[in-house]
Amino acid sequence: MTSPAEQTSGIPTGRPAGRAPGRALVVGTGLIGGSIGMALRARGWHVSGTDADPDRANAALAMGALDVVGSDPRADVAFIATPVGAAADVARTLLAGPHGTGPVVTDVSGVKAPVVTAVGHPRFIGGHPMAGSEQMGLSGADPDLFMGATWVLTPTAATDLDAYSLVQSVVTSLGADVVALAPADHDRLVAVVSHVPHLVAATLMNAAADGAEQDAALLRLAAGGFRDMTRVAAGHPGIWPDVCADNSRAIVAALDRLLGDLTTIRDQVAETDRAGLLEVLDRASAARRNLPARATRPENLAMVRVPVPDREGVLAEITTLAGDLGINIYDIEIAHSAEGPRGVLLLVVASTDAAPLAEAVGARGYRCTVSELA
Amino acid sequence: MTSPAEQTSGIPTGRPAGRAPGRALVVGTGLIGGSIGMALRARGWHVSGTDADPDRANAALAMGALDVVGSDPRADVAFIATPVGAAADVARTLLAGPHGTGPVVTDVSGVKAPVVTAVGHPRFIGGHPMAGSEQMGLSGADPDLFMGATWVLTPTAATDLDAYSLVQSVVTSLGADVVALAPADHDRLVAVVSHVPHLVAATLMNAAADGAEQDAALLRLAAGGFRDMTRVAAGHPGIWPDVCADNSRAIVAALDRLLGDLTTIRDQVAETDRAGLLEVLDRASAARRNLPARATRPENLAMVRVPVPDREGVLAEITTLAGDLGINIYDIEIAHSAEGPRGVLLLVVASTDAAPLAEAVGARGYRCTVSELA
Fold it and tell me: CA A348, CA A336: separation in Å to the nearest integer?
């Protein structure tokens, strides 16, 4: 696989070229790893893979998620989809590589700051595909699992520009929409929208199960709303002690907020505060109805070109700025100038997002230009 | 419509006869009332209907939920599907009737003890179809809304046997599975499986909306699990202040339990108590996977015959006993003996439920016999 630097020797004017498929390594061939393998192979990649359980790696091969079982010293990119506790060690081993230059490495674990800090390498990009499923294991693997899903990447000030661009490009080619966030921001936000809701679902389910021991009728009264609210609790519990340990501070903070909010509601119910209850429920109803559906590709795209010093930190600053604004970057490329240490960051976004992004980037002191893409 | 007493002059030996469709009145033609009207008309009933908003009654007529707009003095049964605050007054007016003998009356409000107590009439049967939908209003009405849904009826010691039998029969004919519960038991159980989950969904949604004001990326991280957990919060908030007021004691008790459970989890996360967390999540996962799907009619049915004194209280005692055991009664009939004040309660249940029900009924001092139905 050629790097963008080889593809573009000057300041390009067109859309970033799609990357040719290369060689990928998947470590951990469960639901996510298997789905990544299938999706990559469907796009022409050569995919090798390993798993701590050799039977599972062979099963992944048999179902078409891999071309070959084993590690590939020539891999361009490696996806680590092991249990979170193993991810950092695997990443360090891969990045050392046979000649000190291993593949670009990314992972899929659900808490990012600990693994990103533990690896601490410019060519390691923390990742988190938000493709939830209560199905467990390789048998649920699906090459379309990531179509329209949000896939968080967590660049840092140390992140290598070309490494990031490669991971963004590959993940985007699988149909996912990349959101760049600082690792700690990712962890704080998923505590609110994923980790705490999961713990709440389990708590509601256990309370109902306890109640059903007294009144067998209880579960027959559990209609669609209750089923919806507890569905995630059916998932495999094995990963959650690690998630809770790795993200304990953010989870405790979000739980404390929830406990406060629920205490307020409890008092409103106890005091028959109709106006207060209606306000809470009205807000929630409006917010839920406005919750965006799965992202769909906009019809009109624009490119934002940002000439940048070729130095550490620029990429993380600008991509996470877009993430904080809720702006989806559909494609990204670093065009290294032939003349010196400067380069141009090429960002493809929805046309409607181009002006707000350019304004925010400009406010950080970068000049930038916007052009519509045909 | 003939009463069971006219259909069966002696002690019957066969299955209860289906009832011929008669005349029904629907008061309140929103989602539930409109769906009831459609479902009844599809089964040959003549359905009249009224609504506090004349335009809505006319819309119900136009979409085929009613035969005629207006009240029907000859109605056999009336379904009150008004906002809960109006139900008791409407019921009392209908039960007074033009000549003191109005129709059998049932309602659909989501909290039962207050309305059952307020009406306090032997021919009023509290009801609650658990057919949840976040769709609001008549436009979502669907004649199949109740197929496979649980429909709670709340007989009391004062409930008239024939009135109950009529409502059970009609509701069952709409495809619903009747669960008989004492009014206060219903209210306690729905606090756990419906009211508190709804308040929790609203609280989670508001916390996420607040977070999104700081980080626009937050809602892009809201994957399927979060969407599932907050779906009910999208519903029309209007009914909830009344529900919370009418069922405040049970809701506060269930919220207090939830607050305690969540505080325990919060401490487990803060202290990295992996074993404790895993136990909580394992229990919830097993319970959720065992949550029964929508009831399906069993292939084999049996009839339990219970000779009973023709006195108040027997019906509520035996039907709510079945409800407490989680046993679904598919059909019920009261066969009045021609010889005296005694009669026979005929209960159709799944074959597998017949022996446990007979045993429990026997333990209450009733003799009973079981026979398989072809």
Answer: 17
